[in-house]
Design goal:
By secondary structure, the protein is an alpha/beta fold. Helices cover 37% and strands 18% of the residues. The structure holds ligand LCLJCK34, 4-methyl-5-hydroxyethylthiazole phosphate (TZP) and magnesium ion (MG). One of its GO terms (cellular component) is cytosol.
């Protein structure tokens, strides 16, 4: 398969630690083809910058036009722009093209001519022409202060300044926490757009070798977007990539060394936490939310491997499946009132107990608690409305739906009993707002969580696909139609069980890591 093309529009760092050299290293490391539009040439090493010279306007535009004709990008990263003329030229060039690709702007504030383009309020307005044209702007604390003319003293200042950039036309802001430490030992980034916000929190890595970290961040983000990840997942992956690169960075010259290029992020420890709305960190940034600090971990499932997991909508189906020996199942009924659902949930819970089965109730968590089901399954929207404390205190297990890296890390913050990963293949059972994840991503998600949380794959899994799903190592396979539309239920279950067994080796390998 051909590699996605990503452009970096940036300055050259002959030392190779920052600028377009850092970008090209990053893009290659993450499986993209990098094209570079040089804005300026800098003479620099790890200890000094001795010269900066902008390229002429015609060669700047010629690079853009030439690439556009033959190598159109899937994503663009913009780094050092030499001056306001270059910023204006790029803004015009972008606005004249039918570009429908993400553009990440790292607002580097060194200008070759040394000028500062401040408005009367002290805000540096040089990037204003670009703000509405880019998908995301990624200032660090110093840049945020300079761009807005507001000193940043605390987390709430970060939120206010980011809002100011939105009001000035930015579509989204990632306020990076690398240069600013309101929480001791932590590095917390704020993402904010017109629809909402989230924080990404991780330990601060104790190293001097941070040369080019902003360049690496923005180019890694462009790469993950080019590879088809939605913004929130791409940001989580980018943080994990930065963490690993900083951890393994090494000095090369006399000054701060560059980040290491460590390939696809895999280690759970590298991934950022997503603080829950209402946590102390969220409050410090000025946001309220439904969760307090004390999330009680949910009772674990009695196994890491939930195995074959049919999801059905009637007591008749539960009865048939229990009679066939199925021991993990879910009652998923829709559109009934609590009163209408109650007798069904009560009977289902009793049937599950009688057979020693893991019977999960979808959505109707109050009834599951009241009637002592084995567990509850909730989606991303359901979880906000549910009383998680009541479910945990009642000793019920909690399964959570996720649809990518961001939701996985948010689910982790809730310490559930298992994490469902979906939808893997296209499904007609439910209208899904997200794209099918596919087997490669499923394998990555499972590897990330293996040994920490039981995993369940769901969506479009049938007898033919079950073996390849099992080969990812995932510990549970949830199915609707593969069971409810089977011509011969006994045979369908045998095929699904045997496919699950075939994944034993992969599961052992994932757990051993
Ligand atoms: C095992 C399992 N995984 C995912 C889902 C989907 O749950 P949710 O996102 O809450 O959507 P609905 O099922 O309520 O439509 C599930 N039910 N089970
Ligand atoms: C409820 C649900 N959540 C994600 S996919 C899905 C439906 C899975 O059904 P099927 O196994 O028939 O594709
Ligand atoms: Mg639900």
């Amino acid at each position: 398969m051909s590699k996605p093309i990503v452009w970096t529009i940036a300055g050259s760092d002959c030392g190779g630690g920052a600028g377009l050299q850092a970008d090209l290293h990053t893009l290659a490391d993450l499986g993209c083809h990098g094209c570079s539009v040089v804005t300026s040439v800098t003479a620099q090493s790890s200890v000094e910058v001795t010269a900066v010279e902008r390229v002429g306007d015609s060669v700047f535009l010629a690079q853009l036009d030439t690439l556009w004709r033959d190598l159109p990008p899937v994503a663009i990263k913009v780094g050092l722009l030499a001056d306001d003329v270059q910023i204006r030229l790029l803004a015009e060039w972008l606005s004249e093209r039918p570009l429908k690709v993400p553009v990440i702007l790292d607002p580097v504030l060194i200008a070759s001519c040394g000028d500062r383009l401040s408005g009367s309020d002290g805000a540096d307005s040089r990037f204003d022409p670009l703000l509405p044209l880019v998908t995301l702007v990624t200032p660090n604390g110093d840049e945020l202060a300079a761009l807005t003319g507001r000193p940043i003293h605390c987390a709430a200042d970060v939120t206010q300044a980011s809002r100011q950039l939105l009001a000035r036309g930015a579509r989204a802001v990632l306020a990076k926490g690398g240069h600013f430490e309101p929480f001791s030992g932590r590095c917390v980034d704020l993402y904010l757009d017109g629809c909402g916000h989230f924080l990404l929190d991780g330990p601060r890595i104790d190293t001097r070798n941070t040369h080019g970290s902003g360049c690496t961040l923005s180019s890694a983000l462009a790469a993950f977007l080019a590879l088809g990840y939605p913004m929130e997942d791409a940001l989580v992956l980018t943080r994990a990539y930065l963490h690993a690169g900083l951890k393994q960075s090494a000095r090369l010259g006399q000054g701060p060394g560059p980040l290491a290029r460590t390939g696809w992020p895999q280690k759970f420890e590298a991934f950022p936490a997503v603080p829950l709305p209402g946590s102390a960190m969220e409050q410090a940034f000025g946001f309220d939310g439904p969760y307090g600090e004390a999330i009680v971990p949910f009772v674990p499932c009695d196994t890491q491997e939930l195995g074959l997991y049919p999801v059905v909508d009637s007591l008749e189906w539960l009865e048939r499946l229990l009679a066939q020996g199925v021991r993990t199942l879910q009652l998923r009924i829709k559109d009934l009132t609590l009163e209408q659902a109650e007798p069904l949930v009560a009977k289902a819970a009793a049937m599950g107990r009688r057979c020693g089965a893991r019977l999960f109730i979808n959505d109707y968590w109050q009834l599951a608690v009241k009637h002592g089901a084995y567990g509850v399954h909730l989606g991303q929207e359901d979880v906000v409305a549910a009383d998680l404390g009541a479910i945990a205190e009642a000793g019920l297990r909690l399964g959570l739906s996720t649809h990518g890296y961001f939701e996985i890390m948010r689910a982790v913050a809730l310490a559930p009993s298992y994490i469902a990963l979906g939808h893997i293949f296209p499904t007609t059972t439910k209208q899904m707002p997200s794209q099918p994840q596919g087997l490669e991503r499923l394998a990555r998600y499972h590897k990330l969580l293996a040994g920490r949380w039981p995993t369940v794959a769901i969506g479009g899994i049938d007898q033919q696909r079950a073996s390849s799903v099992a080969a990812t190592g995932v510990g549970g396979i949830a199915v609707v139609r593969a069971v409810t539309q089977a011509a011969d239920l006994t045979r369908a279950l045998e095929q699904l069980w045997s496919a699950f067994e075939s994944g034993q080796g992969a599961r052992e390998a994932a757990h051993a890591q």
